[in-house]
Amino acid sequence: MKKHILLAYGTLLSFCFLAAQTGHDSAYYQSYKGSIITRVYFSRKYDIFKLTPPDPSLPAMSYHANTTLSLGLGLTYRSLSFSFSKELSFLKSQERKGATNATDLQLHLYKQKWTIDAVGEFYKGYYLRPDGLAAPDGQSFYLRPDLGVQLVGLAAYRVLNDQRFSYGAGLSQNAWQKKSAGSFLVGGEAFYLATNADSSFVPATVDSAFASQNVRKLHLFEIGPGVGYAYTLVIREYFFLLGSVNVDFNLHFARELGNDISSDKIGFTPNFIFRVGAGYNLSRWGLNLTWMWSSVNATGGFSNYKYNVTAGNYRLIYFRRVAINRRMKRILRPTD
Asked: Cβ neighbours of residue 236 under 8 Å, at least 6 residues apart?
């Protein structure tokens, strides 16, 4: 399966870089390719593993990672963005909600014609909601330090109106959108998801039949085409509001594993990616607030449980552009 994932990634990346970059309408946005964008930001990430039983009399369950506010640093050169963040652990309530070990790897490439997102998320340690469900006496939450979720994926989309709309202007600050514009998006995604635990995902006090089979592993591979639309509303040139939605129609392969159980299911499922941003831009610096939300869905072949993994983050960003050539020094006006 790993070979298939790598092959899918390679195919998508090769397809993405076939398109050569062309000029754009500078009345709509200013590109800052000849500069380095540095940023400092506060972020809050979240990761939720939800299980919905086929029996409506049983409650839906959501395992939440215990994450908190992080302080981060980021860098963008041309279209490539890197970031690093560290949780402010003193704000985390580990006693009531347990501890989560989290590693996030993200690579975002916002070119004129393409937007490419590669992610690797590795979380271990969750707590169950609703509050009190299956929790031991005297405790607020049912804790699962053994539960882990791993996700590796790639999404690539062609920006059809690249002459007047810049995706990177609102997300990586490598451009300044000066007039309102939008664009349809065409592309697709591929990813691999694995969830695993030492014992059944579902506590015996909630669903004894599921727990007796000890279904404790789920492997999921999805790939498929998608469409979307993004729009930036510019107010008085310096203020902006960005909204974006992608819908992917994926072929998925899901495998549940438990006691003497290895059940496979193939089907189609829609997945969604939402992005929202707002901010204030000048040529040299700016302030942005962004939110990203993505959802992955599947149904177990043995249990008929619906599985959903939702991930996202909020970011408050202060950025500054630094010129690295003479032309960009003229564009980055010192009066800002």
From this structure: none
pTM, to two decimals: 0.83
Q: What is the DSSP letter of 90?
A: G
Closest CA to 251 of 194, 187, 196, 298: 298
Whether residue 213 lies inside any domain: the answer is yes
* pLDDT tens digit at each of 336 positions of the chain: 444 444 443 444 444 444 444 578 888 998 887 788 999 999 988 899 999 999 999 999 999 999 888 898 888 887 677 777 777 876 666 668 888 888 888 788 888 899 998 888 899 999 999 989 999 888 889 999 999 999 999 999 999 999 999 988 888 888 899 999 999 999 999 999 999 999 999 999 999 989 999 999 999 999 999 999 999 999 999 999 999 999 999 999 999 999 888 999 998 888 999 999 999 988 889 999 999 999 888 888 899 999 999 998 999 999 998 877 666 556 555 545
Integer Cα distance of 300 and 194 in angstroms: 13
Q: 170: helix, coil or strand? A: helix
Q: Indicate whether 336 belongs to any domain.
A: no
- Count CB-CB contacts under 10 A for residue 228: 22
Domain of residue 130 covers 2-18+28-331
Specify the CATH number for the domain of residue 183.
Answer: 2.40.128
Written as one string, the DSSP assignment of 94-119 is: HHHH---EEEEEEEEEE-SSEEEEEE
Q: How many domains does the chain have?
A: 1
Q: Is 105 within a domain? A: yes
The C-alpha angle 183, 321, 172, rounded to 5 degrees, equals 35
Phi, psi of 163 (to 5 degrees): -70, -30
